[in-house]
Every structure is written in structure tokens, then in C-alpha cells.
Design brief:
The protein is α/β, with parallel strands linked by helices and 128 residues long. 41% of the residues lie in helices and 20% in strands.
């Protein structure tokens, strides 16, 4: 996938579907482990609400997972701009296919702003 002039790798994880015979925590963790500490690699996980997957992903050092289950898309944009989120957890029960695709496209196209936000991200990443 090419977004914002650079090539990115997107890793998908799905919980609760026949495609993945595992629990939500494993799906979130698998995508997150593959994403951690890699520039240009993003994880996208799907769950009922997306909450459990995000919690599991955020247990892995280097992961900053954001949840989106509908509503204002500024949440998706800000997760990248201000928090350098590298995993997007989508609540499949609350999103149509079109809404999910719109959120993913926006999320992937939105760069991290750095600056004052970089200090916060460094603090988050350095917390044991």
C-alpha cells in the first residue's frame, strides 16, 4: 500500500471470525508483535468493539493502539497526528464496511506531527 508518498506494510488481525481460530487477545497481540518497533509498519485489528484487541496490543512495548468504532473521524486522525498510533483497532459491530475503509484510509494517510507530541510518545514508549 502506498500512502503519503511512502510505502507502508499493513498487518491485519481479526478476532471472533472463522478466518482466525483464536481469541481476541491473541489476534490483537499477533498484529502488534509484528508491528512493534518497525517504521512504516502498521497493524489493523478488528473485534466486536475493538477494545479488547487494543488492550492486548498496547501490552506490547512499542505499540500505540487506538480504538475507533464510529463517529467523528477526527479521533482517527488525531491518533496518528498526536500519538503516532501504529495499530488501529476497529469495532466491527459498530462500523459498516465503508466506514471502516474510510477510517483506515484516513489513518494511513495521516502523518505524525512530532514536535511537542514527540516528547509524550517518547514517555509512553519508555514506560515499563
Amino acid at each position: 500500500m502506498n500512502t503519503a508518498g511512502k510505502s507502508v506494510t499493513v498487518l491485519l488481525g481479526m478476532a471472533g471470525l472463522a478466518l482466525v481460530a483464536t481469541v481476541a487477545l491473541s489476534a490483537g497481540s499477533a498484529s502488534a508483535k509484528a508491528t512493534a518497533d518497525k517504521q512504516g509498519v502498521f497493524g489493523i485489528v478488528f473485534g466486536g468493539s475493538g477494545q479488547g484487541e487494543a488492550i492486548a496490543a498496547n501490552k506490547i512495548k512499542g505499540i500505540r493502539s487506538a480504538v475507533y468504532y464510529g463517529g467523528n473521524l477526527d479521533i482517527v486522525k488525531l491518533s496518528r497526528q498526536h500519538n503516532d498510533a501504529n495499530v488501529l483497532s476497529l469495532g466491527a459491530r459498530f462500523l459498516t464496511k465503508e466506514q471502516a475503509l474510510e477510517a483506515v484510509k484516513l489513518w494511513l494517510a495521516t502523518p505524525f506531527e512530532g514536535g511537542r507530541h514527540a516528547r509524550r510518545v517518547q514517555k509512553i514508549d519508555s514506560t515499563p
